[in-house]
Amino acid sequence: MKIAFLSTFFPFRGGIAQFNALVYRELEKSNEVKAFTFKRQYPNFLFPGKTQYVTENDLADKIDSVEILDSVNPFSYVMTAAKIKNWNPDVIITKYWMTFFGPSLGFVLGKLNRAARISILDNVIPHEKRFFDSAFNKYFLKRNDGFIVMSDKVLADLLSIKPNAKYLRINHPVYDHFGETLDRHIAHKTLNIDSSKNTLLFFGIIRDYKGLDLLIEAMALLDDSYQLIIAGEVYGSFEKYDKLIEQRDLRDKLLIHNQYIGDNEVNLYFSAADVCILPYKSATQSGITSIANHFLLPIIATDVGGLKETIYDQKTGLIVNETNAEDLAEKIRFYFDNKLKKTFSENILAFNTENSWEKFTIKLLDFINEIKGFKK
Predict the structure, then answer these.
(1) Residue 82: in which H helix or E strand, if any?
(2) Are residue 228 and residue 368 in the same domain, yes or no?
(3) Who has the most CB within 10 Å: 78, 220, 272, 329?
(4) Would you give the DSSP letter of residue 210?
């Protein structure tokens, strides 16, 4: 098949671009694939981080893509649709994770209705709601023929807006491009932390809904045998977390790397940790689970969204039933008191075998052929 893939690719950085690159590499093994990406993804004033682009610390797959779509320039929508239409694909794949992109991606798809139009959905109903969400969602979703969803929460959100949607539910594959696990003691020495302590990891972009404040409160309930690594760039201000850390006198129990973690450093943090913590207040699914699974690192997560669909309670991790600091601290103690890391890691290894990029893409291609059959 000729497959046009319109989404975020190099030189943009982050989990979306990484996901797309891995799917692209699998698709191109048996298809003619062409990547189309953004000339401008976000206007700078709308982007809360330091940069949208790959740095020298990122192990980016430099997918050869056509940089053409400007998310806020309607003239580029027309140009993008014409460029892809001229290439005459059988299929166009998009990745949808934010309603902000509904108009740009939706317009292009509306002009390409002869191709099978498939969207891989990260989110439908966003964590942080905006006045345009409903209209933009409806505009984008109606211009697709089929959807890939990776959690039951996203599926429910999709069907609440488009009840007759054709979809395929697949688990998020395991990220496998961050290198090998390092020796725990070497990782601790590199980070200059105490190897005798139980080490927790909070990793990734810091946003309000991810519940870092709950984890900080939980740390105040744990004794000095515990330490927490916070590794990730804050979107907004870290000030409220700093105040909480000072109020609870936790500075000596925390290692804070409030910055974007380059791809070549990811294995350092996951190798240093004994468990990864996802104290989210809301969620659909999380790419962090896929990274943790690659390093066979168990996860303790709150019971929100679709997190427990890929974190199997008492098998590959622990689920906290109530989203509060007390229950989170209790689960952390339970994990270490019962020495669960080895057993959970062995179970994660079996899970990983079933969630490869190859198997994900085989299922995706089967679904595409099904959708193409419906369109004939």
Answers:
(1) helix 74-87
(2) no
(3) 272
(4) G
